[in-house]
Amino acid sequence: MLPTESKKALSFKRYIEEGDLVIVYERNDVMKPVKVIKDGVLQNRFGVYKHSDWIGKPLGTKVFSNKGKFVYLLAPTPELWTLVLSHRTQILYIADISFVLMYLEVVPGCIVLESGTGSGSLSTSLARAVAPTGHVYSFDFQEQRAVCAREDFEKTGISSLVTVEVRDIQGQGFPEKLSGLADSVFLDLPQPWLAVPSAAKMLKEDGVLCSFSPCIEQVQRTCEVLRSYFIQIRTFEVLLRTYEVNELKVDTGSMIGENQDADNEESRPSKRKHRSNEDDTISHDNSYNATSVVMAPPCSEARGHTGYLTFAKLQCLYLSLKGWIYNSTSYHVLDTL
Amino acid sequence: MEHSEDQAMPENQNNNKPQYPNPRFASEGCSVLLDVNDGDRLVFARLSGGAIFKIGNKNYSLKPLIGAPFGSLFQVETGEEGSFLSRILPIKKESSSVNVVEDGRDNRELIDDNESQNLTGEEIEAMRREGAKGEEIIEALIANSKTFDKKFQLSQEKYLLKKQKKYAPKVLLRRPFARSICEAYFKKYPARIGFIRVDALSLLLTMANVTAYSDVLVVDMVGGLITGAVAERLGGTGYVCNTYKGNSPSCVDMVRMFNFTDKVKERIVHSSISELSSAKTAPPEENNQQGGVCKSEININESSASDMVEDVSVTAEARVVDDVVTESKTIKAPQPGAKASKEAVEMWKENGFSSLIMAAQDQDPWTLAKDVLPLLSYSAPFAIYHQYLQPLATCMHNLQQGKMAINVQITEPWLREYQVLPSRSHPHMQMSSFGGYVLSGIRISTT
């Protein structure tokens, strides 16, 4: 899924090979991850698709079933993966994932700790952000989930970037060996406040923590503990509103001063849909006084709540690296170090 | 079970060796974000021995910040040679669990007649001249307030916070990141970045699958915010290629605020739409590699130094007054973004770009998209930002009609911040109600 060298970038990966993971796209809401095998077949309500027909085709093209129906084959991305992965737990979706990545300031080379692993939706995006030189350490207290996550990361080709361990982070904290190494820590735990002291220990100076909780009571308790170690504590909720796009015919005939009879006579035969051409979406039909307009109403249903995202920066307690001499006499807290 | 854990560890430790210059420390000449009173005011500055920062009506040298780790907190102090910024180390607070005592006090005895404070402005000023610390002034204010004791416990806390901001301001030294740069601009000069809120920016980067080794095509007409944010995620691999109509590349001056290393800067290039979409034989003008230096660049160069220091200060009276002339001569980052090499352009013509982000103010997205989308590989994702819904709707409609893309959708992010305090958690009273629209999709083969 992620290019590990420049030649493996999507722009170079033009043709499907055996062993590739592709996303079979039927519709916006019907997609499926498939590993391409020489003798493999895919069956859906539109018929049978032979993998052997796919090999050598470029990604992003149509492939046809024995009944002549087609699907698209797409290169997997963390976004598509989030839509097709098997849910072992409640997962994070694109709005929260994007915001977390941005706020945790995850860039190539970063070390990120995460608990729990869950279904690995966020882990996949974290891996994309730290690649090629960084690493994600993901912890889940359930053995089965960790095993499945590892299998998934193997499948998506990101296992060199993510290490999954079985560990109860609330009870045991993060492993000592990662102390002071993490650029960012992400917590998605039922009682995140229990893990905060350990998370603080793992972070580098000025490192960022994020805690995701669905309930405000969890946020409340987490923030109380955070205040002892962190600054810039901020809690957000991020949601998406999506829009539909419809082409409608709108009667633009004037209410007065029109010869109604003449209008009606001419309008009947032209009721068939007028397809707008590329550069002029608004096609005028003078005889009918109707204009075809593209409109974008919001979709009527949306996800109303996912969770609260609380971010905090580790307090900067050290004075400096060598070479920085503080040039004033006012270091009143110096002796506490 | 513990696979790859052991092998991964030592390798990572090597990666953690501090590089020079250490990005976690503010060095001379680097760009920093000064955060006054927990986000009340955000100011970008370039650190130099002579840089001056104004808080209230006093000027402070930024010299004490040089060499300090990012995340350090400073407060103002008055010494023998006048006022200066001095670093403070936060004292570990004991976790104050729910300590809201049942408090029967309310505001029935508080009368807003401006008579409750005995201390006059002149007296406060005199204290300051004598070198009183901020805390001492606040103590004096409380002692001379007729109403402080009558206040409800929570409003006492509010009162203290308000006075602390005024008399003992704190300055936090922050590392400029795509996030903080976007936030700072959105707060002060949203029009310059096309009203892209930080959550919209994060969506663009995610939806365009920006990752190491990718070749990202951008149409950045928002000052370089998109270019910088993409370069940050490429970490010195792949390319971010800024394309443009006509002859002069768009200005991407904001890129200079990111403190990029040369390795990262090399990956920021530009090329015109016509160069990228022309047939394989290069037109003669393309030989002129240095000729295409951005036109706007010249104007920017003149103003950029001052732009850099006074940019994005949040309150009107606030600005970093710096010795602009000397600064622009001494520490001047080179203009970001060279012209894309012929080899790179040929490579993109052959293979296509791996994704696209467009954020073009005052441009019709469809007019641009129909020229730019064919430059992408098949299966490449794209994300188009616009401040208005209608042009995106038209663009989406045309993409669908032309069967150029699938998985197309228009989304609008919504972001709400919360105050979280014991027994006082609620959404902020004020919020940004609009952060832009994003049209996303995946390019497909039309055949």
TrEMBL record, chain A:
Where it sits in the cell: the answer is:
Nucleus
EC numbers, comma separated: 2.1.1.220
Which reaction(s) are listed as its catalytic activity? adenosine(58) in tRNA + S-adenosyl-L-methionine = N(1)-methyladenosine(58) in tRNA + S-adenosyl-L-homocysteine + H(+)
List residues of the tRNA (adenine(58)-N(1))-methyltransferase catalytic subunit TRM61 C-terminal domain.
69-313
Q: Which residues bind S-adenosyl-L-methionine?
A: 119-122, 140, 168, 188
A molecular function (GO) held by this record is: tRNA (adenine(58)-N1)-methyltransferase activity
Which example biological process does GO assign this protein? tRNA methylation
Cellular component annotations (GO), alphabetically ordered:
nucleus; tRNA (m1A) methyltransferase complex
Which keywords describe this protein according to UniProt?
Methyltransferase, Nucleus, S-adenosyl-L-methionine, Transferase, tRNA processing
User: Which residue ranges are recorded for the region named Disordered?
Assistant: 256-287
Pfam families in the record? GCD14
What family is it from?
Belongs to the class I-like SAM-binding methyltransferase superfamily. TRM61 family.
Protein name, per record: tRNA (adenine(58)-N(1))-methyltransferase
**UniProt source species:** Brassica carinata (Ethiopian mustard)
Automatic annotation (TrEMBL), chain B:
Q: Which family does it belong to?
A: Belongs to the TRM6/GCD10 family.
Q: Does the keyword tRNA processing apply?
A: yes
UniProt cross-references to InterPro entries, sorted A to Z: TRM6 (IPR017423)
Please provide the record's keywords in A-Z order. Nucleus, tRNA processing
**Chief place where the protein resides:** nucleus
**Role, per record:** Substrate-binding subunit of tRNA (adenine-N1-)-methyltransferase, which catalyzes the formation of N1-methyladenine at position 58 (m1A58) in initiator methionyl-tRNA.
Q: Does the keyword Ion transport apply?
A: no
* PANTHER family assigned: TRANSLATION INITIATION FACTOR EIF3-RELATED, TRNA (ADENINE(58)-N(1))-METHYLTRANSFERASE NON-CATALYTIC SUBUNIT TRM6
Q: Which GO terms describe its cellular component?
A: nucleus; tRNA (m1A) methyltransferase complex
User: Species lineage, top-down?
Assistant: Eukaryota, Viridiplantae, Streptophyta, Embryophyta, Tracheophyta
The molecule here is called: tRNA (adenine(58)-N(1))-methyltransferase non-catalytic subunit TRM6
- Bias kind Low complexity: ranges: 10-23
Subunit and interaction comment: Heterotetramer.
Q: Which GO terms are recorded in the biological process aspect for this UniProt protein?
A: tRNA methylation
Reading the lineage from the top rank, the first entry is Eukaryota
| Region (Disordered) location | 1-24
Intracellular or extracellular location(s): Nucleus
